[in-house]
Sequence to fold (216 residues):
Amino acid sequence: MENNESCPQRVEKLLNELQSLYPDAACGLNYRTPFELLVATILSAQSTDKKVNQVTARLFAKAATPEQIAALTPEELEEEIRELGLYRHKARYIIAAARAILAEYGGELPKDRAELMTLPGVGRKTANVVLGTAFAIPAFPVDTHVFRVARRLGLAAGRTPLEVEEQLMQLIPENLWIGTHHRLIRHGRLVCTARRPHCPGCALRPYCPTGRQAPA
Fold:
């Protein structure tokens, strides 16, 4: 194993191993349209995908389009999503975003990051999730799992999500961006957890500078 932690050979082997470990890794949020994914992603802040999916199953049965969401009052939407953290703020963001989509984009979700980020409640990560997952437009969303795991694996050294995103996009082929995003999330949830990463049994340990330093 070469000492250069970003050497192409190590990265290629690591990505291949990730693919073997999680061949079916995909977005954990349930959605049928890009707008539903946008709503679900906004709701996912400080909430689990499982809980969000439970909430959106009920919500989308009642209101699933920008028109239907925009017609709700904040109190009505709050009642539907109150099981989730920050539900009052999220309700206002989602309604405002739906109304902006209707007013500015004719009811169609824009396929441009800058335009998506003008919508209330939509930051760079959420915009990238929608672009990469719903529209298959190259993007590399960096959430807390991707940020943590990429740094531990030596794929990035950035101190901010944007720095990590830029470093990953330079290192990893564009056609692998969204798939690697999903696989890093899966690995972060199952193995490379925040508090007690399971380094001894990790299949990526041979390629991981953090894992190689951990006790056996």
In short: The chain has a mean pLDDT of 95.
